[in-house]
Amino acid sequence: MKNKSMASSLLLLGALCFGSCSSTKKLYTTSCIFPEGSSIEEKVRLSAHVVPSQRQLNWQKMEYTAFICYGINTFTDKEWGTGKEDPKQFNPTNLDAGQWVSTAKEAGMKMILLTCKHHDGFCLWPSKETDFSVESSPWKGGKGDLVREVSDACRKEGLKFAVYLSPWDMNHPTYGTEAYNDVFTNQLTELLTQYGQVDEVWFDGACGEGPNGKKQVYDFKRYYETIRKLQPQAVIAVMGPDVRWVGTESGYGRDTEWSVIPAAEASLKEIANSSQQEAGTGTFLPTGGNMKKDMGSRLLLEKANGVIWYPSEVDVSIRPGWYYHAKEDVKVKTPQKLIDIYYSSVGKNSLLLLNIPPDKRGLIHENDKHSLLEMKRILQNTFAHNYVDKKYKKLTDNRLDTYWQGSAKNKVIEIALEGEQKIDRLLLQENITQGQRIEKFMLECWTGNEWRRVATGTTVGFKRILRFDSVTCNKVRITILKSRDVPQYMGQYK
Question: Which of 177, 276, 354, 462 shows its CA 20 to 30 Å from the CA of 318?
Fold first, then answer.
């Protein structure tokens, strides 16, 4: 068996589909309200035709992005601030946003998500709504704007830029009153109008007391409408309508991850009324807990009034904490651990958001950078060559709109390799622009005199990667054991 850093692989990409959602005139929609009295078979068929919006598809294609947790907590050596910190504590000695972005790019990440304001309320830009910001710090004599430096560096390096803005604010005096919703919307507007294109806005659900001892009732609908108006291409996560939190901060997703999940009928009607499937102006929040093991099975569909496309994001930090702590320099996740997380997130139909917190200097620490780049090297070597015979162009061109398509009776594809090869990876993709369909599949390898089952899996979605003990063969076959509609897929072998 080859060393895992040079592992051989099998890669298949694909999609399955037919039918339409009878509640709309379109063949494919981002949501579907089930007609009254629908059987489970009809609900399954309709669910197979729910697809991502363009912004969700663009987001999913990134696969791997960076979270940058940086702020007053970096300098107080705490994970959560109080809102009572002295802004003068924020004083990086050698801050280089270009180093953050170039490190992320070199590691293979496609976007930077910056904590523009965490729960303490300290702003990394000079907000007109507060003086609890970099403007009151000694950094650059109070003339600095870290949001601008990061967004400019992202544009220079060709990475997308995203903002994290905490609705909870332990510092602002209006927090806990309706006036604060004006303040927050104004801050959101500042971020969405002064720093170029923003491709994601990230909210969490934290809601605690402010300086007056009150909690805030967040006007999420107003926040969403502001984003849709000012940055319509941006996805809204995680307390938002486009992307959901996987449910843990471990870095590990579900073995069975559906992007199509049940949603409350009221939410579905609001989506339809605001034409999310056309213009993307809908503002809604699907209901239900993200911690559940089952998010979209037939059992849940049977009880549902409708479904929506709501994909999973896996967030995890490269360190034990989310902010930099010097004592954790020796606790940075190893490249091998990061690779395991990659297979368990990106390889399980989720996007991986990996936090890399800069230190007090204002730099990504050497230990973090080493693990990131070694992870990238190993993954590159693992998937360096595709062993699928070149004649299978529709399976190997890395396009979602070209694929192998089966039928109701034919759900097996047999593929020749480039001669005899040793393989220990299977990568499958569905053409999610026509829905998520596969519920169970099997990989078999021809060992010379018989077909040997070497791996099985459940959902595929945008990407599924299976690891298995290496096997030597010259051809393989994939059987779709269960699906919500006819399978189509494309593929590669390495």
Answer: 462
User: Cα(40)–Cα(133) distance, rounded to whole angstroms?
Assistant: 54
Whether 162 and 109 have beta carbons less than 8 Å apart is answered as no
3-state secondary structure 39-78: CHHHHHHHHCCECCCHHHHHHHHHCEEEEECCCHHHHHCC
**C-beta atoms surrounding 42 within 10 Å:** 15
Residue 126 Cα distances to 131, 132, 145, 167, 187, angstroms: 8, 9, 6, 17, 10
Contact 458, 467 (CB under 8 A): no
Half-sphere exposure in the Cβ direction for 5 (13 Å, CA): 8
- Exposure of 56 by Cβ count < 10 A (0-12 exposed, 13-18 middle, 19+ buried)? buried
Question: Tokens 């091998």 — which residue?
Answer: 336
Residues 422, 441 contacting (CB under 8 angstroms): no
SS3 4: helix
Location of structure tokens 């139909």: 349
C-alpha pair distances (Å), 121 with each of 170, 181, 204, 335: 6, 14, 14, 34
CA atoms within 13 A on the CB side of 56: 31
Of the candidates 395, 386, 394, 447, the residue with the CA atom closest to the CA atom of residue 417: 386
pTM: predicted TM-score of the whole model, two decimal places: 0.91
Q: For 121-180, how does the pLDDT look when each residue is reduced to its tens digit (9 = 90+)?
A: 999 999 999 999 999 999 999 999 999 999 999 999 999 999 999 999 999 999 999 999
Nearest to 68 by CA among 149, 156, 183, 132: 149
Task: State how far the Cα of 231 lies from the Cα of 228, in Å rounded to an integer.
Answer: 6
